[in-house]
Amino acid sequence: MKGDWVEIVVDVGGSATRTYEVAATRAGRRVEIGNRRGVVEVSEVTRTGTTIRTARFMSNRVLALVEHPVADEKGGHSGDGAG
User: Fold this and answer.
1) How far apart are CA 33 and CA 3, in angstroms?
2) Which end of the chain, N or C, is more open, meaning fewer C-beta atoms within 10 Å of its C-beta?
């Protein structure tokens, strides 16, 4: 849903970290997360399933993966079943 975003904190060596963000930028898009073969993939996807962009990180370097769902009109989170 537009406004959903994921924040990824990655260890870049030493004591340094870098933060990346992937967001659903238009209505009807969503952010999907996958963990395959030691790689974390965060993708912006259209409602038909077409991938718009993907960020890939080695899973052993990912320190935090935080999902920020957009709140709906009723004050709950989108897609959590609460209404």
Assistant:
1) 16
2) C
> Which of 41, 30, 38, 29 lies closest to 65 in space, CA to CA?
41
Q: What is the value of pTM for the model shown?
A: 0.76
Contacts of 50 (CB under 8 A, 6+ apart): none
Distance CA(32)–CA(69), nearest Å, equals 12
- Say how far residue 24 (Cα) sits from the centre of its chain: 9
Q: What is the pLDDT of residues 7-49, one digit of tens each?
A: 999 999 888 999 999 988 888 899 999 999 999 999 999 999 9
Query: DSSP per residue over 1-58, as a string?
Result: -TT-EEEEEEEEETTEEEEEEEE--STT-EEEEEEETTEEEEEEE-TTS-EEEEEEEE
Residue with tokens 């073969």: 37
